[in-house]
Amino acid sequence: MKNKLRRKEPKRKGRINKKEIYKMKTEKPENIEKLKKKSEKKQKRRFKKEQKLEKIKPIEKYSGISRRKRMKVWMLVTVLIAGLFIGRIGWIQFVMGDELKEMALEQQSLDRTVNPRRGTIYDATGKTVLAVSSTVNTITVNPNNIAKENKEKVAEALSNIFELDYETVLKKVKKNTSIETIVRKVDKEKADELRNWMEANKIETGINIDEDTKRYYPYNSLASQVIGFCGSDNQGLDGIEAIYEDELQGEKGRITKVTDANGGEIEGEGENYTSAIDGNDLVLSIDATIQGIAEKYLKEACIDNKCTDGGNIIVMNPKTGDILAMAGYPNYNLNEPYETTIEELKGNWDNMSETEQVKEMQKVWRNKAVADTYEPGSTFKLITASAALEEGITTTDKEGEFCCTGGITIEGVRISCWRYYRPHGSESLRQALMNSCNPVFIGLGQKIGVSKYYDYLEKFGLLKRTGIDLPGEAGSIFLKEDKVGPIELATISFGQRFEITPIQMITAVSTIANKGIYVKPRIVKQIIDSKTGEVKDVPVEETAGVISKETAEGVLSMMGTVVAEGTGKNAQVKGYSVGGKTGTSEDGVDTGKYVTSFVGVAPVEAPQVVVLITLYNPTGEGGHQGGGVAAPIGSQVLGEVLPYLEVEKNNLNEDDVVEEVEVPNIEGMTISDAKQELEKVGLEISYEETEEDVSNNSVVSQMPISGVKVNVGSKIQVSY
Predict the structure, then answer these.
(1) Does the residue 365 lie in any domain?
(2) Per-residue pLDDT tens for 209-233?
(3) Whether residues 87 and 142 fall in one domain
(4) Residue 577 catalytic?
(5) Are residues 485 and 409 in the same domain?
(6) How far apart are CA 36 and CA 26, in angstroms?
(7) What is the pLDDT of residues 459-491, one digit of tens each?
(8) 241 is in which domain, residue-wise?
(9) N or C: which end of the chain has fewer CB within 10 A?
(10) Which of 159, 221, 378, 493 is the catalytic position?
(11) In this structure, are residues 313 and 633 in contact, taking their beta carbons and an 8 Å threshold?
(12) Is there a contact between 569 and 366 (Cβ–Cβ < 8 Å)?
């Protein structure tokens, strides 16, 4: 049955495969186009696939190779980074360890400095204090240790007690810092007031009251241009205070406290206190009494003679080089160094800018005796006379050796004598010095010659600075030796057309007074170690052989004649033999200003004191001649200094006896009572007068000090 149902197909010679069947189907026209499109799409897909494969193949190839390399690279990088970390750790640990440890300690601790007591400055006696550091306090706060609710209350208390701006103080109290300074240099009374307030308000932390020092000068303006002053940080800014800063300043102490990261206190941690080391004390060559005498008479001279540019006086011990006094006018108050003492400026002072005020004060701070140069004029004839005698060119008393005709002609230039209208005529060297005759000294200079004359300038220390231990010393101004011709040598011979400092001039004359031995000027005699009390003497520096003893004695003898009979008569002192030389010179060329001076020695036979008075541009009725203006000041100064030094009188006549009295102690008295007390013993009182009545003001200091013997009629300078 099954066989019957099976479809019978025609027999074929061969079997037809799939390709033939496919060919038969595609041969149909309607299918040809479809097959073409299908084939094209297939080819496109194959092409894209091949492109992707081409891109993938090199990447796969690279990736296959880089895995190994990449592992090596990463291993190398890892080793390098690890090496760098280890090296950095080693550097931090071993190289920077100490520094970082110190930085960490600073960050974790609160430091406050303790200022040392600055060394005391004494006068030559070692008893009179010229500068001292008094104990005061510095107030600081630790803002992070002040409770938030107390900040305004603390700021209000601080501003009220110390008279400060409230907003400024509050800003400091609220700062996110470990420490802020509120006020420095406050007196003990104010600090105690703050302590009482803190106790009453139960505030135990956040406010610090640390001991500090403040520089104080008991005699206000005495030797101000020598001593100098300090800044707010106790650092010396001028004078001895600046030059001897290393000796005087001492070493700061520290108060250290461990804190947390915010600067707050850590419970149980106390303060570590390192004591400050006080500065060394100084003993000056300045004698306070002699300094007071010099300042008193200098001030009177400058006011009476209307010296528009002030003046200075130096008193020197020729044997030791000690500067016993160095006074300048105008001067200033060391306790208020930025306040003027010049009456002409006081009225307009507050209207001046800070720059203008400082500029004016710098003029007063300047020590003209050391820092300024001037033409010495006829006082320099002492140097020419010394050189001429030493060279054997002349003698002191050869009658008629010289003849003044009113002038002398050098290289066709006529140089006149100051008394050209009535020439001095026939003279010896003694008479020429006594008359201050220019032509004689011009002639001596020509005979000495430029080279030899400059040798003596060098020996007398006039071609270099003296080296005195004061700031700002100026050097002399001379023409170079090879530029000096006959005319230039002529003007140098009588003290003009060159410049030196007053300290150089008095040192040169002190060489004559010291019998030909040059001594370097000295302003500090001793240094006292604050830790051990050891006293170190500052050595006297000498140079012998400038001129012979015989030459020096000859010049001193002639100086005695100048005061006894010549232009220096006004410098005479009863009971003492005084020698000297006056000088007058132009202050610059064609300025119309003059410098008048006098240099004196006493006693002439064995000088113990040399004094130099220099007044700049005196315009008063007394004129500008040294004999009339400066010589009388020399008499006044020596008249008090010599008795004070207990120099024995050697030139007594019955009329020369001067009564002496002992200065009483008037410190603490009112001006009125002090005046009466002084009048009882024949003395006068002198003080700075103001528009206000100061008769009830108390005397703070006096000069000379009590116990000193002075001549009856002398003035006692007081400050109040």
Answers:
(1) no
(2) 887 888 999 999 999 999 999 988 8
(3) no
(4) no
(5) yes
(6) 10
(7) 999 999 999 999 999 999 999 999 999 999 999
(8) 109-284
(9) N
(10) 378
(11) yes
(12) no
